[in-house]
Amino acid sequence: MISLIPKSSKTRASYLNSTEKHQSSSPSSSSPDFSALPYDVLGRIAASFTPPNLRAASLVCRAWRDALKPLREAMVLLMWGKRFKHGRGGVQANLSKALDSFLKGAARGSTLSMVDAGLIYWEMGKKEEAIAWYRRAAKLGDPAAQCNLAISILQADPPIFEEAIDWLYKASVAGHARAQYQLALCLHQGRGVEQNPQEAAHWYQRAAKGGYVRAMYNTSLCYSLGEGLWQSHSLARKWMKRAADCGRGDDEGCGVFGAGHQGGETAAAHVKDAIIRKLSAASRDKAMLLVDNWRALPSSC
């Protein structure tokens, strides 16, 4: 075997020393120095950080601690804003003080505060202000803001479909369950995008696995009718049971099935109407055909 290390002991020692020096100095010279990031860049990166992530980032180095000080202050303001909004923590509910706290937090760069400020403006009927704050937070990468912005502009007159689908997709890829559900609805209904039952079912499943109950309900329907997914009554029952266990109680979720069991034929008609409203035209036709062709099995008694 040919050796690439010099044979003389003196030369070998000098060779090894020089190699060790090179190896020890090379990582430090090639690794990036994150402490040198400009404050404004770091602020944009951390704008959507949750309090635990923000605290962890502040411990990286002194430069980061100093740069993230406004965002830490925003977290305190966000906490007080939520207390004033919901009347928690020993304070009386006060929407004006809540909004003031959220706006101060938003001014310090927190997208969480921007979203909450947008929610209050929306509840006050000031939709333009709400959309402006959602948009600002969405551009900073906040998935909740992206989802809220998309839903808001879908409800506009006229709806802005292309932009809404773009924001829903970004939030969905980031793992936001409500955005995944809303994207699936658009794909299922062909709203602002070409109708695609398979892709809709994919996003229903993603949202259902993320804990979004309405998506569990729709995933069950997809399996039950074989729309976008292979037909599987066992998987349909699995997702319906999971949704029921989560305890939805409105017309859009599995609570309608509980009402059907409790209220007899009147409630059953209510359940039928609620289900039909949720189906696409093709699914309705298929469901009606299955109902028309249904026959009771002979009794074994």
Automatic annotation (TrEMBL):
It comes from the Eukaryota. This is F-box domain-containing protein. Gene3D superfamilies: 1.20.1280.50, Tetratricopeptide repeat domain. Transmembrane segments: none annotated. Residues 31-83 form the F-box domain. InterPro entries: F-box-like_dom_sf (IPR036047), F-box_dom (IPR001810), F-box_motif (IPR053301), Sel1-like (IPR006597), TPR-like_helical_dom_sf (IPR011990). It comes from Rehmannia glutinosa. It holds the Pfam family Sel1.
